[in-house]
Amino acid sequence: KQEVTQIPAALSVPEGENLVLNCSFTDSAIYNLQWFRQDPGKGLTSLLLIQSSQREQTSGRLNASLDKSSGRSTLYIAASQPGDSATYLCAVDNQAGTALIFGKGTTLSVSS
Amino acid sequence: EPEVTQTPSHQVTQMGQEVILRCVPISNHLYFYWYRQILGQKVEFLVSFYNNEISEKSEIFDDQFSVERPDGSNFTLKIRSTKLEDSAMYFCATDNGQGGTEAFFGQGTRLTVV
């Protein structure tokens, strides 16, 4: 059974720092890995999707990498801003059109 | 940008009552999902729906739950005889089922059972 773990559970940094959020999964037979952002009491906003055949994806200040064989992904946030404060969720599926399995998330707080 | 719309945003119901949560999927998407998130816990998969039938469901999705697409646009989750432990945020999600495409989530319905 696929399990997704995110470390750390919480992270506080001053504005401007570069940071890395970690995600690991137990079954390397994934199809897609997706990173989401969740603001308190709100829905999930998709940030980046990495297909199993890809190594990384970039969007603005965000870069996500995938090492499928070791069951790991990282989300790199450059030059963090207070508006980046949110919970970041990692999720995987094992084929198109199937359930996403989520980690518990990393709650990020960026202070000005 | 296309979006998934959920109504209501917040529903309070008495224990034992039935509730229906509604979702309007993105128009060209083919796969529809319901997830729930109990406060402080992980987002959990409930059910997926494709071609007018359930394609996958979790152990959470028991006889208390049902889904349907009654009019070709709305996608609904019905919870019969609600229990206190059904209190959670319920999210609808959709995708087009093709490799490399993102799942889009709605803003959620917060269900409170009292």
Question: Which features would summarize this protein structure in a list?
Answer:
heterodimer, A: 112 residues, mainly beta, 6-stranded mixed β-sheet, 5-stranded antiparallel β-sheet, B: 114 residues, 7-stranded mixed β-sheet, 4-stranded antiparallel β-sheet, 11 strands, globular
Overview in brief:
The complex is a heterodimer of chains A (112) and B (114). Chain A is mainly β.
Report on the structure:
The complex is a heterodimer of chains A (112) and B (114). Chain A is mostly beta strands and 112 residues long. Chain A contains no helices and eleven strands. In chain A, strands 2, 4, 5, 9, 10 and 11 form a six-stranded mixed β-sheet that branches. Chain A has a five-stranded antiparallel β-sheet with strand order 1-3-8-7-6, with no helix packed on it. The mean pLDDT of chain A is 95. By secondary structure, chain B is mainly β. Chain B is built from no helices and eleven strands. The radius of gyration of chain B is 13 Å and the shape is globular. The interface between A and B is medium-sized, with 24 and 31 residues.
Structural class of chain B: mainly beta
Rounded Rg of chain B: 13 Å
Strand content of chain A: over 45%
Return the structural class of chain A: mainly beta
**Rg on CA atoms of chain A, Å:** 13 Å
What is the strand and helix layout of this fold?
The complex is a heterodimer of chains A (112) and B (114).
Chain A: E1 4-7, E2 10-14, E3 19-25, E4 32-38, E5 44-51, E6 56-59, E7 62-67, E8 72-77, E9 86-93, E10 101-102, E11 106-111
Parallel strand pairs in A: 2-11
Antiparallel strand pairs in A: 1-3, 3-8, 4-5, 4-9, 6-7, 7-8, 9-10, 9-11
Chain B: E1 5-7, E2 10-13, E3 19-24, E4 31-37, E5 43-50, E6 53-57, E7 65-68, E8 75-79, E9 88-95, E10 104-105, E11 109-113
Parallel strand pairs in B: 2-11
Antiparallel strand pairs in B: 1-3, 3-8, 4-5, 4-9, 5-6, 7-8, 9-10, 9-11
